[in-house]
């Protein structure tokens, strides 16, 4: 792999004035399978060089994957032109007086050599184990095994020299029987050794029972949301409630509500990129150091996350919390990508279900999307294992249902949380691989709004 | 016209490497993609972003021992492509053993695809200065903010040029250049409590076409801005859309999303054959349904057409070298065909691919994707004619939210505006409309589609599928259409 920091320094050398160069280099291997057979195998070795130039506090950013001097020089020129144009059309100085103060660090805390080896044999073995296990249950296996090594390097005119090399491994298994019933399990970890294809298939297959699914009418139900569903909802909460740009622009669900009780007292949530069990990260795309940020403490709204751009827009004492996802800040805002929901004391899903007379158990949610931003109202379908809870026990499968509900309402109706957290990873990787996830337990929620079914 | 072919040396380089592919490969392809993009965005009177980028590389896909392997390299050299070939072969061979014999690929075409094609582009967007683009966008955006209740005005333009070359072991050797360009604007209005959005000409970044800067000029952003502002403000005092079962007319932009989500994705053959069941999902359509399934009313006629001029999903060849074609997918409401690549076509025993294999950039492998999936024009005249012929209903316009299940059966969509229709006339405005349905029942309620003059192509930029994820632009030709007995106001 190209030495990422050396490349960032070469890119920086083509700039003048205040500037920052970031290199994101990806090596990854993804093996897909369907109907218990290999379908697609994808190996990627690519990088992005992003150059940010500052003019009067305004940022111009250009990207390239050309690493020769001509390509870097051209990108630096485009970034300078963009910054000059932004400054010329602004009424005032921009939010970037300079790149963050210079620090020097090289992080390998989130890196595992066995994972970085990207061994296709290891992936194939995990898939074969999953297929064997699903076959044992008379089901077919579908899914993906994916491992990657991503290096982030930053060099800035303020003297920063930062490297963060991380690995991640992800596997998802869906098993399906001849009646089109399906179950799901997934695992995300920094190390490939933690991925157990057979165990995932066993968990998924266990959700496909002999009973025929029943229809559930629209209404409100007490629900037990397993970890995958909780992770999905919290990821949307990150965008709709904890995005500092949305907050500053008055679009956010927490606008004007910091300090208020917005969730149940049992809910404590933080963004913790250095905590145990998360995918460790040391700095953001602006080179700002990452650290834990309290978001909800016993249900009270404590804060939102910022990049330099959103903090400047928010004003007051807002500062970057290290959540830029692109140099100069994304127009979409900063992102809390290491959410950690504190565990509760319910031993397992069965204990969460125990007090429910009639409710639903949801394995995972699919195609969640925002309905109304300010209300953090989302809609989503259940998938791959939705069940009726009757008299305190999971009894029969139900056909998938649509849930349309407010995220803060859901958090305010949390009755209990599981004692075991699981890292719910996002393994689709549109664009450059950016492994992140939510560490969370399963939860029990009152009055979840079911608005339809398939 | 901008039809500059890539450096001829690149195609030669790909052909040489493919000709030398190891004999273990029963099939191999090498695809070069060079991309240049620019996005200009203004927000509240300032140049919010002038993002530019370029990238290039080669993706190599091989088939060996019945399995696929794909490797990508950003280095466009013989050595790097050879290394990628070896890597692709290695990971194909390392894949898990299959319980079933692999089918051969469907043939690419009668004669191997050769030559060069370039999309139409009258005004090269990369020769129009950023200053000129900003002048237009800032001018339109300023009109949005002439009322203090507009808390955020924004406008943007997008340009992308993709240079492409493909060589395969079955003789394909061709190049193409595609230029995309478009834009739009959006007003966010607030009274301190409510927030309402109005977009033009489409939500989610505006409307993009396979065209040059002339497409942006044709949108007349300056002329539209005042109306967009006024409609955003009007929404602040509009009541919520009442719920109930109603007749609805969907505007053309919302029809594009409706076709995209509940027809286009459902007819992707890899989904039907369960190849995407682990991520994008399967389909409510089964292989046995092709030729017999009643998908909707007799008013429903759907085509996939990669030859549509100016449409985002158009090209001369797909990413397997299959020539662009027009395929009738649904005829008078009955399912006739699906979207297929060479692998899925062979799996189902079809004689040929329907030319729907596409990949995002060089570092992703081709999979089954929509090209331009369109509803054909009907006979209901103009939108005004259709409204006049509607006694009681709602006109829903401009997508705001969307969600559909993994079989493309149950959907729920939201729009920016709803207008009441009473006695053939438009009435009061409602905010936050949403509607839901079950795909075949919803399309069974289609009772009128506007005629050809009301039909136009829309560009959808954010179609996601695949693992690793791929975001591709697709086109949808639509006209406003009317549906009966629709569940409205579910959100």
Automatic annotation (TrEMBL), chain A:
UniProt domain Metalloprotease TldD/E N-terminal: residue ranges: 21-83
Record-annotated Metalloprotease TldD/E C-terminal domain positions: 218-452
Domain of life from the UniProt record: Bacteria
Cited Pfam families: PmbA_TldD_1st (PF01523), PmbA_TldD_3rd (PF19289)
Family: Belongs to the peptidase U62 family.
Name assigned to this protein: TldD/PmbA family protein
Organism listed in the record: Svornostia abyssi
UniProtKB/TrEMBL annotation, chain B:
Ranges of residues in domain Metalloprotease TldD/E central: 124-216
UniProt keywords, alphabetically: Hydrolase, Metalloprotease, Protease
Keyword Hydrolase annotated: yes
Domain Metalloprotease TldD/E N-terminal: 28-92
Record domain Metalloprotease TldD/E C-terminal: where: 243-473
A UniProt-annotated Pfam family: PmbA_TldD_1st
Protein's name according to its UniProt entry: TldD/PmbA family protein
Organism placement in taxonomy: Bacteria, Bacillati, Actinomycetota, Thermoleophilia, Solirubrobacterales
